[in-house]
């Protein structure tokens, strides 16, 4: 699986987030609502500096999940890797193929995680910029539902690939 496209998309998402949130940063008050209940009402506040440090931390976490885990799997002892049919997929002659597959799968996962992060933080920014007491949180529920569906499909695709080695190996 070629991972260049999801890596490019992830880079563009990071660039977009940097420009987007840099634009809104000076417009925000010094203390911002940073956590919301299920109905979209703010229930926790922090300085905007701390809020955006949290955004950077979550961005780094998304990067580590998407791009660090495949590298970690590559250098870990095979006995510590939990992968179906790992003797087949982690054999030295297949390690490059397995690495490419995992890198591609996790790069797409990182893109989706980062989109969820951007949209969630954007909700908080918009909440803090508008005088309206309550933004409609329905959009966030759709985002979470979409993420759940993506994650289920992603897991099924990964398992479908690794649960059954190609027929010629059986």
The general outline is elongated
Number of helices: 5
Biggest sheet character: 2 strands, antiparallel
> In angstroms, what separates the terminal alpha carbons?
22 Å
Q: Percent range for helical residues?
A: 55-70%
Structural class of the secondary structure composition? Answer: mainly alpha
Strand order, sheet with most strands: 1-2
What is the radius of gyration computed over CA atoms, rounded to a whole number of angstroms?
20 Å
Mean residue pLDDT: 91
* Beta-strand fraction estimate: 5-15%
Topology:
Layout: H1 4-24, E1 31-36, E2 42-47, H2 48-75, H3 86-89, H4 95-129, H5 138-163
Antiparallel strand pairs: 1-2
Write up what this structure looks like.
- With 170 residues, the chain is mainly alpha-helical.
- It has five helices and two strands, in the order αββαααα.
- Strands 1-2 form a two-stranded antiparallel ribbon.
- Helix 2 (48-75) runs antiparallel to helix 4 and helix 4 packs antiparallel against helix 5 (138-163).
- It starts with a helix and ends in a 7-residue tail after the last helix.
- The mean pLDDT is 91.
